[in-house]
Design goal:
Two copies of one chain form a homodimer. Chain A is of the alpha+beta class. Chain A has nine helices and eight strands. The structure holds a DNA duplex (30 and 30 nucleotides).
DNA sequence: CGTCGAATTGATGTCATTCAACTACAGTGG
DNA sequence: CCACTGTAGTTGAATGACATCAATTCGACG
């Protein structure tokens, strides 16, 4: 935990915060979720979003055949939530599970909207975040439509180089949309090419 | 054009509009794009979003191998835009092309934000739209990760039954992420099962 | 009636999956 | 400290799904 960046410190990078706001942010509770524990299960209606201080989370769905499909990961300084379940207050089809022991700041549903009244910059920040989210999801769709197993893996390494090593291959495969065995083979081939 | 629903009429379904707002909406220019013409090309920075009065648009990218990948369609009463290019004012990687001769209402970049000053409901409406967009993109990712060619096709028929028949199979294949020939075979199999 | 592009069909190839066996390694208990 | 167990990752062989290429048919339109 030595190097954890608090939510307030993180937000300061993007917008100026009043002392009162910093205070409110600092008063938010944190929660520790051990590896394998859940912050959200399919069927539940989400009431919080989370800021990752330390650790690694996965956000995934399970299909009719029982297979896992990871939509995204979140490590230090990322936010994690089912924005849609939260916003529409409807049951989520997704799970949020800790891949490592993780410490999150718990952000209640209406926390940011209340804060927006005194700090209008939060509205803009949220809109920006929503657009970034869309940008990212569209890129992902393009990638799933166009790229082979090897290309997807390489893209992932580039994009998430900082956390790639921390993600078990089984889970990475579930993110890339390939079988774990295939990922193993792809890695082998790449390793051989380098030699 | 006999049954076209104007942008003002469409919005009335969701929020109450002042006379002044209705006036502003009615004064927006409309534009006709013939089949095969573009509203946006990759590399351009988008300055408008569009409301489809009549017709059918596609939103797609082209990969390094020259293949088309359709991200979404938009028919009557749908909005179409590269929200991200618009919001961040950065070049778009996507094309918006008319599949049929289409009539759109042209909505300038800051039109809604200006309108928001007098009609706060627009802010909420936009946020809601952004969340719906995310919901939809996540569903699509889940589908691409989990479903076979046949399942994707069936899902599409269910979800877009109203416009499915208007979409050429080559383009539908580019949406589903399969080869046109494969789509043809999938359709054949389904037809045989029914008999 | 002829032409052009879209859709179909068949033959073949490729990439990734599946299933099963095996290996590597971390954690647990004797 | 070492044997035992469980989990993740690897490897091989067989299979399957979809892609590709080429030939043909269909259908709209001049």
């Amino acid at each position: 935990m030595e190097y954890a960046i608090s939510l307030a410190d993180h937000l300061k990078k993007y917008i100026r915060l009043s002392d009162n706001t910093i205070n409110e942010l600092t008063n938010l509770t944190t929660r520790t979720v051990l590896k394998g524990e859940f912050l959200l299960r399919a069927g539940e209606t989400s009431r919080y979003s989370y800021y990752v201080e330390k650790g690694l989370l996965s956000y995934y769905s399970i299909d009719e055949k029982g297979k896992y499909h990871i939509i995204q990961f979140a490590a230090e300084e990322w936010f994690m939530a089912d924005r849609c379940s939260l916003f529409f207050q409807q049951p989520s089809p997704y799970f949020i599970e800790a891949i490592e022991d993780t410490v999150v700041t718990v952000i209640p549903l209406d926390f940011f909207s209340k804060l927006s009244e005194s700090e209008p910059a939060f509205v803009e920040m949220n809109t920006k975040a929503l657009h970034h989210h869309i940008l990212h999801l569209q890129k992902r769709i393009h990638q799933l439509l166009s790229a082979s197993a090897e290309e997807r893996y390489k893209d992932f390494l580039e994009m998430y180089s900082s956390i790639a090593a921390r993600i078990p291959q089984t889970l990475l495969a579930a993110y890339l949309g390939i079988a774990p065995e295939s990922l193993s083979r792809v890695r082998k081939e790449i390793a051989q090419k380098r030699s």
